[in-house]
Fold Glycosyl transferase CAP10 domain-containing protein.
Amino acid sequence: MILRPSSIPQRRRLQYLAVAVLVALFFWCWTGSDTVVGPGGAAKWSAQRKQQQHQHPIGKGPQYQPLSQTNAAALTTGDHPIDALIQAAEKEFSAKLQEQSLSLAEAAAAYRERRGRHPPPGFRQWYEFAAAHKAVVVEEFWDQIYADLEPLWSVRPGRLRRDAADFEMRIAVRAGKASTTSEWFWTQIWLSMIQSIEHLLPDMDLALNAMDEPRIVVPWEKMRDHMAQAAKTKKLPDDVESAVSVFQRLPPPGQEQPDPNEKSRDLKWEVTKPYWLVVRRGCAPGSAARDAKPITDFDRTPQIASPFSLAHMRHGFVANYTLSTDFCHQADLQGLSGMLVEPISVSATAELFPLFGGSKLAVNNDILLPAPIYWSGEERFTGQDAADFPWDKKRDAAVWRGVATGGRNTEQNWRAFQRHRFVAMSNGTLVTLAEEKKETKSSSQASGATADSSGNFALPPAAQLGPWVSSWADVGFTDLMCGYGGQELGQCNYTGRYFGVMPSVDMAQQFTYKYLPDVDGNSFSGRYRGFLRSTSLPVKATLFREWHDSRLVAWKHFVPMDNRFGDWYAIMEYFLGDGELLGHDAVAQRIAAAGKEWADRVLRKEDMQIYVLRLLLEYARVVDERRESMGWVDDLVSGARGRGKA
């Protein structure tokens, strides 16, 4: 008999979600077993945009259209909750493509409509650069820039310039040349990236964050005031002929004459732990994060929120990926993420100043650049030699290898770390132990924690789920990253009892598997771009924001996973099947193909250059004393340029 998804009760489809939570909770209490986890596991401007189509055909070319065979929605039936998410993603992506700008005039009109200001000086050169590199130009793709820079419009330009010039690690751009005195490898990589576009850049100083962890968390109330003040500067002057179109020039680095009104300030750097106590101030009053009692003891079973009650979930699966990365409504994550417990290093400030970095949490106020690891293109993070490995030759399995990072794990806190939890949940032996409820203490705690208002879930018969997980999960640590010294290489005296150390699997070899789960380490995962550019399917769980987020669509280009991993089994059940339910291999293949096709179009090094050029033109304007009268208005001025003095 052929089983069809519609013949399986909805309760059966969601059983694995309940079991996943049970296994996660079992993990925290799992201290009496010697089992080692190893393998197995502006309406005016809108009208103007329509009127000005094709007036400036710089680099004009055919509109980007995805290949028809990468439409996974065409293969869905609507019988499973994931089907609806895939169909919605297809519509979202199609809507994005309808907003492509195919000319300079269209790009400028789209800018004014979305930003409420004139484009910055240099906008024509930016568009020409983008067009010459065959970029897909959709104004939404640069939203992160404006989320990052908008608060700075509330700070005096002189203050911003002084803060950047005083910072210990920085890149200076003068007369079209970028330089630095820092030898730190991240700075050198960022310098290389900026030097590739330096001839298009005005003078500026960029303060750089050398740490894995983001550093600025302005209190929500203060950020609200910054944004209100910044909003007062947002305008589109009708007198376009008086617009200033030339950036200021700055003295050579170290020769600046300090503004007597802008004194150097000694920023206060906090080292508070848990880091949760620092970051939750970035959440709104009344939010779950602000109201929840802080956890101080991580050597116990935490509370895990039901995946069916969270705002970013629908029927147990991530429906709003952006919201899933925001912990403000997810107070339980304070005990489920090493970053929120004890990062490798903590050095945070509540003061707003222009600091650039490679990733950040939703509440951080750092300014995002493409991470150095993406620009460097190291083979161990790209695996491009095998990126085109054929789908039909891949293993019907998931692979993950990594170090037990996520922060500074100790004997008292390691159970709160996401990578340890994920590896444990992907081990069939442990799943079987949880199913059979061999530990009385863990059974009672798990049963209480998995209660859910949507109904009781009858678990599968004992010993069935564990072997199923073992059949497809090839997951394990390559180094236990012990918090204590004196250990054998890769081993740890307090976690070695539970986790085995497995041989590493390079990226090229990982691409011979169909499914690539991606979990945060000390910060963002540096493999994500490589995963997206492969023919395998990334399954992504993260709390970190990156430069490219607004150009990717969850369930169209990758599969999102909740940071509790309660949906991990159900996701794999949907794609692989489990003996009762049919799998959706063709759907997985098409999402993987769509992700690769799109990543090869919008996550290239050229796209990083285009992003950084737009970012730094905007940054140069916000630190210029004449910023409110600056703008590119050539498309609005007939026969004349906006005038200004350098």
